[in-house]
Amino acid sequence: MLLGFDGSHAAMTAVSIAAELMPLRHARVAHLWTAPGADSTMHRRLARRAWNGDHLWRLVRREAASTANSVAARGVTLAEAAGWTAEPFVHEVHGGEGLALAELAERFRPAVVVVGSRGAWGLPGLFSSVSRTTVNYSSTPVLVVPPLLAEERAAAVGGAVMIAHDGSPAADRARVVAADLFRDRLQLVRYVGTPAIFGGPSPRVAIEPEVAGRNSEEGLPPETVKLATEEFGPRSVADTLAEEAAAQGVGVIVVASRRRSTLRERLLGSNARALLRHGHRAVLVVPPDT
């Protein structure tokens, strides 16, 4: 697997949760770094030692690379302490860390990319975050780990896997990927219907499963449990799934992404986007098969 690690608390949380969900794996701990600008403390300190501008730039890059290696080594230590085997990978980028991480996923083809989220999914102005960009452009599944409460962290230890299914082939693929990544865990398949589908507003409770034949006609696995929402819209769908995840002690929610018409780009559906913002669980986003 490929672990995006920047040394932050969010990244450290991602290591611990991912190791609980997928134990005994090997991780490439990737730290992406950029040389600091002229207004940085490092730049100002080294300016006193430099002979000229070129020399200053070399000094700054050397120090930045040394710091990057230290961060990656710390990530390896954390990964190994969590039960993985791990190796560092340090890569210089010039902006666009999320896109660079997605490109590394294309290069290394890991089973999954792991990234932490600082909770910025819910803020409308922060759509350029590293985790969001990685999810949008990665050709391999991405596990996004947000800030979690104690009971949500505990669910990662042995909780079930919940598949958000909409009857599509993409959702079927997400289910297969989840079975491979989260081995020996109970899979719960959930479909969320809007009030229009269920004939008007209804409480957020599970509806009795349809017979297997009816589910199959709708493209749903036979064991799918249908949930109803009180309101329309992606936020209501995400809240319904989050409540079901909490009720069932789910450790991770799995959702399929959608393909853009633009070559090699991925665009999340509105429901998946809302789930990443409001799901309150680790979320595995599975892109279309390529």
Q: How many extended strands?
A: 13
Which residue ranges are poorly predicted, with pLDDT under 50 across at least 5 consecutive positions? 120-128, 201-205, 260-267
The profile of the biggest β sheet is: 11 strands, mixed
Query: SSE string, helix = H, strand = E?
Result: EHEHHEHEHEHEHEEHEHEEEHE
Task: Note the quaternary state here.
Answer: single chain
Count of runs of 4 or more consecutive helical residues: 10
**Global geometry:** elongated
What structural class should be given to the helix and strand makeup?
Answer: alpha/beta
Distance between the termini: 18 Å
Question: What percentage of residues falls in helices of 4 or more residues?
Answer: 40-55%
Give the strand order of the largest sheet, numbering strands 1, 2, ... along the chain.
3-2-1-4-5-13-10-6-7-9-8
Overall mean pLDDT stands at 82
How are the SSEs placed, and which strands pair?
Elements: E1 2-4, H1 9-21, E2 26-33, H2 41-47, H3 53-81, E3 85-92, H4 97-108, E4 113-116, H5 130-137, E5 142-145, H6 150-158, E6 161-164, H7 169-181, E7 187-193, E8 206-207, H8 212-217, E9 225-228, H9 234-248, E10 252-256, E11 258-259, E12 266-267, H10 270-278, E13 282-286
Parallel strand pairs: 1-2, 1-4, 2-3, 4-5, 6-7, 6-10, 7-9, 10-13
Antiparallel strand pairs: 5-13, 8-9, 11-12
Description:
With 290 residues, this protein is of the alpha/beta class. The protein is 42% helix and 20% strand. The protein has ten helices and 13 strands. The strands form two sheets. An eleven-stranded mixed β-sheet has the order 3-2-1-4-5-13-10-6-7-9-8, with helices on both faces. It has a two-stranded antiparallel sheet with strand order 11-12. Helix 2 packs across helix 3.
